[in-house]
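Last lecture ended with a question: if I hand you only a sequence, what can you say about the shape of the protein? Today we answer it with a concrete record. The protein is ATP-dependent zinc metalloprotease FtsH. Below, first the input exactly as provided, then the predicted structure, then a couple of comments.
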Amino acid sequence: MKPKEEKKDPKKSTKKQVTVKMKINIWTVIFSILLVLFFLPSIFSLLGIGSTDLKVDLSSALNDLKNEKIEKVSIEKNNLILTYKDKTTKLASKEEGQSFTDLLVASDIDPNKLQFTVVDQTLAKAMAEVVSIVLPIILLGGLFFYMMKSQTRGAQDIFSFGKSKAKIFAKGKQDTTFADVAGVDEAKKELVEVVDFLKNPEKYKKIGARTPKGVLLFGPSGVGKTMLAKAVAGEANVPFFSMAGSEFMEMLVGIGASRVRDLFAQAKAQAPSIIFIDEIDAIGRQRGRSGLVGGHDEREQTLNQILVEMDGFTPNESVIVLAATNRGDLLDPALLRPGRFDRRVTLDMPDKEGRQAILAIHSKGKTFGKDINWARIADRTVGFSGADLENMLNEAAIGAARLNKPEIDMTDIEESATKVKLGPAKKRLQSAEDKKITAYHEAGHAIVTHFTKGMDPVHRISIVARGMSLGHTLIPPAADRTHDTKTRLLDQITAMLGGRAAEEFVFNEMTSGASNDIANATRIARAMVIEWGMSSLGPVNYGPDTSSGEFGQTDWYQENAVSPAMQEKIDNEVRKIMEHGLLEAEKLIKKYKSKLDLVAKELLEKETVDKDQFERIVGKKQNGEGVGILKEVTPQKS
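The predicted structure:
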């Protein structure tokens, strides 16, 4: 669940929107009136008002007066508006200065028997002239005022760059609580104390304890750092300011520092409160790390301002800063010292119990079949983060709905778990020869894994293309491990090279399909030599110096200081490990060739073989065979 977001001041925002709409409507009305006035003569002309077919000459009008066809006459200067007894109206004109009474007398018409009135237009004309002069001035003045106000607003917007763009969640508006977060119990315990600091500050002040000023949440993507921050806000019931590290940065110099000041000013005004900065590594990287960036760099100014606001001369009580990052090794040491981020909470991938708890949370609202085994799913999803598990269940629900199933079953979850990690299945057009090579390659991985002592059981083998791979062999860990032994690492390298060994043995040929296996195996072998001291070169770290700081921060980037002679020895050790793994894989492939053929045949027929089907062919996994003592060897082809 996500906390409900609110704007800084919704009433003011709504009022401002209504005002803008009113201004637009007023100017629309004024513009419409001007258009009507401009086109009024044309409209009258189209409607026949004032057109020549309603005009009569003066002699005809006098003749109609004599014949008593006209009921009344209105005289407007030189115009005669004639109203006939049949209620029609016509217009006649007399000469300038000519008296209407004299015309009647000259035409033998008795003026006393005729009803006529004289309309004085002097005032109306004067008003019309005034309006015709004043109205354009008013309109131009209004337009000028509007343009000036727009420019002023634009200038204000420029200065508003320095205002914080944090999303503000008002007190009591956060729905997420610690009950919505699972798999990170140790981190939750640390943050429960932070909530208690905000709820009961006097309890700690009484004994002389100081409230932590900052809490850094560090861990890989998807483990729940942002969710934990939302839960703290929901539990503490205080105003919550959320902002991403990248939102502090703009083109203009000094904007980041200005936004930091504004953000902390708002938080202090509503203290006790929480500030959450997501992806803080965007602005909190080590200063001068490259050796080329000076102290006036915009990012460094922003970082300096954060350092001052968190622990400067101005006291900063009852405002706790939460920050999240998955790149703690990049953060500046000054940001991590006590007094700033007092607490550093490390989040890891969830263990089996944590995965079951996360699955229980995200399974709410979904319909599952009776065959669902949550313990088995938790075992299957070793290495999945909380976000991966949520996505897996969502993909399973989508897949079940697409097939019009009434509920989600284990098949849907198995497919969605594979899809989350490897991508959707693809029906690539492969020749029969390509499919056969892929089948033996994946069968080689499975056979070597199954008969290697230190490896976990094979879970699934498939030659269905997913992502960039033409097939896959899933070997999820049987249990969560915190340590890897040298023997197990050698077993992993051997299993990774099982595909290449099978290709060489069966087809007497090498393919490019083993490129990813070789890359991963080489990475492990190189780490064994240069990082973990698992070679004849002894327990020495030959990599870059990353010894300083909790997260491995260094003031300057350390180049690899290994000499060329030592680098050659390192390369030889890595090659020795790789060749040893390939030789062991070749031995197992040669020994269990008949089972390799059966597994490959099953893959070519069914494309996917699960654990039960695989073990029916090769038997239950026993202790297997050890890799043996690492020696300098040269692989032999059969």
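Comments.
1. The chain has five domains: 52-119, 124-162, 167-346, 352-422, 425-618.
2. The CA atoms of residues 219 and 326 lie 5 Å apart.
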